[in-house]
Design brief:
The complex is a heterodimer of chains A (336) and B (241). Chain A is mainly alpha-helical and 336 residues long. Chain A has a domain of 201 residues. Helices cover 79% and strands 1% of the residues of chain A. Chain A has a two-stranded antiparallel ribbon. In chain A, helix 3 packs across helix 4, helix 3 packs parallel to helix 5 and helix 4 packs antiparallel against helix 10. The N and C termini of chain B lie far apart (39 Å). Chain B has one domain: Rossmann fold (3-Layer(aba) Sandwich). In chain B, the strands form two sheets. In chain B, strands 6-7-8-3-9-10 form a six-stranded mixed β-sheet, sandwiched between helices. A four-stranded antiparallel β-sheet of chain B has the order 2-1-4-5, covered by helices on one side. Chain B has 241 residues and is an alpha/beta fold. The chains are: A mainly alpha (336), B alpha/beta (241). Chains A and B meet through helix 8 and helix 9 of A and helix 2 and helix 3 of B.
Chain lengths: 336, 241
């Protein structure tokens, strides 16, 4: 039964836009799928290989700009960006990893944070190429959300399946060995520098593809959006941590939770505060309703604290513990 | 036949000379003991051989080839396995996965790596522990896992760094049996050890160092009666009596 669960979920997701025709929910699901791809990429380099990256936006933005610039400068379909975006992100990842994988632990994390900022500044300053803060606007290909939905779903499924495939191969064993002990890995004949590069490039490729899809879907990007530290890089880390670091399905669950929480705050608890403000007419309530949508970062912070305290391995990593807490009688049943 | 040779190895850490001009040769098929008091440079020599530190000067030869300066993973691929004094298990992986990861260095595909790993686990007597998470093993078995993992890379030469330290007397006997068994399977061994019972019973030849310099070499009997060795271990007054 258990091995059919992914298949059942996949069928449900395929039928989702047919059943639920509300464009808003379809939009949210597309965002979830994009985050599944980004989270899976982050999970490969940080979760499985242990090299925590704070610079996923560098790859995401590169992918997005590749798609956008191809359409803007050469007037070819931005969908070519899906093919080239991943490789463009790898072109950023390669020299970065080559130099910065000499650094270990927090020093690598800091270097990746710097990469994020460097890329954002380049995109802002290089106006002739990127139009700087003006951003890039392209015409969306489809009016309906449904084609985007299936493309995003395909990307998400491919990411998860690809990561699962990699982790079952020799590369997977090497990544885990590097995460657990780099010196031991070297003495076991693993070229740690090379395999950290492989891992980073897989992450960059998946994230770059997600970025290109984001460009196609949203139709507009600027450096502040796609190279954003807290909306992309930190969000990628949160998706990984909340879903479960170093688990195959963790990023998928994390993406769902994070997009939901993000939306929950953006809409002011689904319009709860707006309603309260209208009902009571108090000034305090009106200002709360106005500011709550900007408080999502605070919400993320609280969520991370709770997850680290009670589910240090994330929702997927501590699934049994979570189930045991919610349904205590089920646990007893299994024990008896 | 000489399998391994260290020629005039020198290692300085800043102004400190950790190893000064140490040379020795290891014959194929022997157990070669390396002894010396704390801080005499034994582990430094191992770290120089597997290139965790670059050597200051001198050269290292294996199977007739100069391997000085090869990267650590290439040295393992060339056929020199090593264990660590402070054990480094891949904590959150199972014992079997630890060994499979090492076995990939010689295996072509996953099935072959799995087969090599199972064979090595059987050989080293860790089969009953294969599904346990490595960090939950007791110290004796962690040390054994170190040996198993380096054996899974199919080495010709094995560097054992204090594999018997911290073990109970019974575990020490088991460790001695395993080391002999590895030698009998055709692997040459260089062993660093503090426990004299181990080093004296299993070594064919012993090389003693102090303050990074050679003070004696020969059979266990010759070395244990050597004046400089007694002086280094027990102090000057014992050497005269």
């Amino acid at each position: 039964m258990k091995k059919f669960i992914p298949l059942i979920i996949l069928i449900v997701l395929c039928l989702f836009p047919v059943v639920i025709q509300n464009a808003y929910y379809q939009h949210l699901m597309i965002l979830v799928f994009i985050w599944v791809a980004i989270g899976s990429g982050w999970n490969v380099i940080a979760g499985f290989t242990g090299q925590v990256s704070f610079g996923d936006a560098a790859f995401f933005g590169t992918g997005a700009y590749t798609a956008g610039l191809l359409a803007h400068h050469f007037h070819i379909s931005a969908w070519w960006g899906m093919a080239f975006g991943g490789f463009a992100a790898m072109a950023v990842a390669f020299p970065f990893g080559w130099i910065c994988f000499r650094l270990r632990g927090p020093y690598f994390a800091l270097a990746s944070l710097a990469l994020n900022e460097v890329c954002r500044h380049i995109a802002t300053i290089a106006e002739p190429l990127t139009q700087g803060m003006v951003g890039i606007l392209i015409m969306p290909t489809f009016l309906s959300k449904i084609p985007y939905y299936y493309i995003a779903l395909a990307l998400a499924v491919l990411s998860v399946v690809f990561v699962q495939f990699v982790m079952k191969s020799k590369w997977g064993y090497y990544f885990l060995s590097i995460r657990e002990d780099q010196d031991a890995a070297e003495s076991m004949g693993i070229d740690t520098h090379k395999y950290k590069m492989v891992s980073l490039n897989i992450a960059a490729f998946l994230t770059g593809m997600a970025g290109a899809l984001f460009m196609n879907y949203m139709g507009f990007i600027d450096p502040e959006v796609v190279f954003s530290l807290h909306d992309i890089s930190i969000m990628a880390i949160l998706v990984g941590i909340i879903g479960g670091v170093g688990t195959i399905y963790g990023p998928a669950v994390g993406a769902l939770v994070m997009v939901a929480v993000h939306e929950f705050f953006r809409t002011g608890f689904f319009g709860l505060f707006k309603g309260l403000a209208a009902m009571t007419g108090s000034d305090a309530m009106i200002s709360v309703a106005k500011t709550i949508s900007h408080a999502h970062v605070l919400g993320f912070g609280i969520l991370v604290v709770l997850v680290i305290l009670y589910l240090p391995n994330g929702i997927v990593g501590d699934w049994d513990k979570l189930v045991g807490k919610i349904i205590p009688f089920k646990k007893k049943e299994a024990a008896s | 036949m000489i399998l391994f040779e260290l020629k005039n190895l020198v290692k300085h850490f800043g102004g400190l000379a950790a190893v000064q001009n140490v040379s020795f040769q290891v014959e194929k098929g022997e157990i070669f003991g390396l002894i010396g008091p704390n801080g005499s440079g034994k582990t430094t020599i191992f770290n120089c051989i597997s290139n965790y530190f670059p050597v200051t000067s001198g050269s290292i030869h294996f199977n007739g080839q100069d391997i000085t300066g090869l990267k650590t993973n290439k040295i393992c691929k060339a056929g020199i396995g090593r264990t660590f004094q402070v054990v480094k298990p891949l904590g959150r992986l199972s014992v079997l996965d630890n060994v499979i990861a090492a076995a990939f260095s010689k295996a072509k595909n996953k099935k072959e790596a799995h087969d090599i790993a199972m064979e090595t686990l059987e050989f080293c007597g860790l089969m009953h522990r294969k599904d346990i998470i490595a960090k939950s093993l007791p110290i004796g078995e962690r040390k054994r896992l170190e040996i198993t993992r380096s054996m899974a890379t199919r080495p010709e030469l094995l560097l054992l760094d204090e594999t018997a330290a911290g073990l109970t007397p019974t575990e020490v006997d088991v460790a001695i049996d395993l080391i002999k068994k590895i030698r009998d399977s055709g692997v040459t061994i260089i062993i660093v050890e503090h426990i004299m019972k181990v080093i004296m019973t299993i070594s064919d030849r012993i090389h003693a160092i102090n303050f990074g310099q050679t003070i004696a070499h020969g059979t266990p009997k010759e070395v244990s009666n050597h004046k400089a060795v007694i002086e280094a271990y027990l102090g000057e007054e014992y050497a005269h009596s």
